[in-house]
Specification:
alpha/beta, Isopropylmalate Dehydrogenase, twelve-stranded mixed sheet
Amino acid sequence: METQKTPIVAVTMGDPTGVGPEVIARALKEGMISPEHTIIVGDLDVVRRAFNLVGLQLPIVSSTQPTLASERIAVADIGLKDVARIPIGKIDRLGGEAAASSIKLSVQLAQTGQVNAVVSCPVNKTALNYAGYHYMDSTDFYTDLAGKKSHILLIHGGNVNAFMVSTHVSLRAALDMVTVDRVLTTIEAAHTTLVRLGIQNPRIGVVGVNPHMGENGILGREEIEFLQPAIEAARARNITVTGLVPAESLVTWTQQGLVDGVVSMYHDQATTAMKPLGYSTFAIGLPFIRCAVGHGTAHDIAGTGKADPRVFVQTYQLASRLAAGRYLTEESHVHA
């Protein structure tokens, strides 16, 4: 389909017994996302249950096409039986199968051009494994379904954008992945993505590996041997790299306007700093736009009506911005 003035977004329900369905319902009820440009991908009865939970009276149309009408919403049904019979808050094999089916259908909608972007609500890794899907996270699942070997992950929260050199690997393995080529590739991906998000000539900082950024080699040489050469190579390609950023300043330097984005060396370096912001993720390098909420399924509060939809809405808005900006993922950089 041609890119719409307002992008069409597929939203997966995530784990059917977690908070995903109800944060979607609450966002719709509070007018934070528009039903006419949204397709919920999941189980019809689970979606109805979530609507009832939050008191949302919005007619549902079973369809893989958007309604383009504010008084009703489309639900692309995954076609499984008895999903809504699983008690809310229970981790279950059928729940994992339902979450996986939602992911697979959302990929089909994206790859056939029926939607401009995909937003994923949280899945439960244990439930996915019970159902036979052995992935470290749903992003790896999407990467596999897209026929790709790897991706670069953007973590986005508020006005902070962190691009990760590595994600779900051990700290020991993550340090081995800090190479000139990999850091340079991530800097390039950061530059491309920030430009597509509307930031002209973005300023990118590179977060140091070691305490105090190595103290000129006293506390480690990664900054000297890998990070600084990658920074110089990026500058030679006309990318504005401000230099090294202390890990403890990853968030504050952006909030103070010193950088527009940072390149983070490993998973917890970025997520620990950004967790208080409530973050979303974007998988760079897939042949379609796919963003995900940064929190988990929160089975302990699912069904209570306490789940906050703001991170979901932030994620939806990020996906819409990327789609409206005609983000061309085939031009994005991916790790070798």
